[in-house]
Amino acid sequence: MSDEESAAASRRLIFGRRRGRKFSPARETTFADWLPRLRIVLPPEGRVLTPAALFAQPMREYWVEVGFGDGQHLFALAEANPDVGFLGVEPYEPGVAKLVSRIAARVNAGGADNIRILTDDARLLLKSLPDGSIARGFTLFPDPWPKKRHQWRRIVNTETLEQWARLIPPGGALRLATDVPDYQRWMLRHILAAPRFDWLAETSADWLRRPADWPASKYEQKAISAGRTPHYYRLHRV
Fold first, then answer.
1. C-alpha span between 225 and 135 (Å, rounded)
2. What residues bind S-adenosyl-L-methionine, as annotated (predicted)?
C-alpha cells in the first residue's frame, strides 16, 4: 500500500453496517433513554479525552474493548471488576442495544455504573486517549474482512498496535482473539513485529485454551459449535 493509499485508508471507516432488525418497543425505549447517558462523546481533533471524566465515581483503572459485539464479554468483566472503568466500542446498534439493556437493568438494581460506550470508529477513541491511561485492552473476534482488497479495514494492524502500546503502560495487557485461520496468521505476524509487546505463550495450550479469567462470548461459542478453533493471544506490555 502506498503512502497515499495508507493515508486515505486512515480516513475511511473500518466497520460495516450499523443497523440490523428493528428493536422491540421495550428495547427501543431503553436504548433511546440510556444510550445518551452512556455514550462517549469524542473531543475535537487534537484534544485529549481523560477516561476519569466519563465516570461519576473514581475508578481504580480503565480498560478498553474494541468491537464488543453484543457486550457479553465486556459486561461480565464489568460485573467482576466494579472498581474498573470500561470503555467499549461497537458501531453495530443491535449489539449496543443488548449491552445498554443489561447496563440499565444492573444500574436500576443498584449495581455499578462502570461502562461507557462509543458507537463510532475505534481508532478515533484510541487516538484521543492520553498516554498510559489504559491498563488493559481487548479486541476479540473482530471482523476478518477476508477479501484481500478489504484487509486494510482489519482493526489489528501496525497502527493500532502502536496506539495500544502508547496507551498501555509497561506491565499492562492486551488480549486479541480470532477464529479465522488467515486472520490468525495476520495477527501473529503483527504481534511478533510489535516491539513493545511480548506474546505470553510457551506451548500451544497457551493460545488454544481460553484463560480462566477471560469470559466466554456468544460469538466464540458459535464458532466452536461450527467446528472453528479460536486462538487467544495474551500480550504483555514491556
1. 32
2. 65, 90, 121, 143
Composition of the chain by helix, strand, coil, percent to 5:
40, 15, 40
Identify which has the larger pLDDT, 16 or 70. Answer: 70
Say which residues have a Cβ less than 8 Å from residue 8's Cβ, sequence separation at least 6. none
For domain 25-41+50-237, which architecture applies?
3-Layer(aba) Sandwich (3.40)
Place of cell 480498560: 63
Q: Which residues are catalytic?
A: 143
**Which residue positions form the known binding site for S-adenosyl-L-methionine?**
65, 90, 121, 143
- Strand 136-140 relative to strand 173-178: parallel, antiparallel, unpaired? parallel
Q: How far is CA 82 from CA 66, 142, 232, in A?
A: 19, 26, 25
Q: Domain segments of the chain: what residues?
A: 25-41+50-237
In this model, does residue 6 exceed pLDDT 50? no
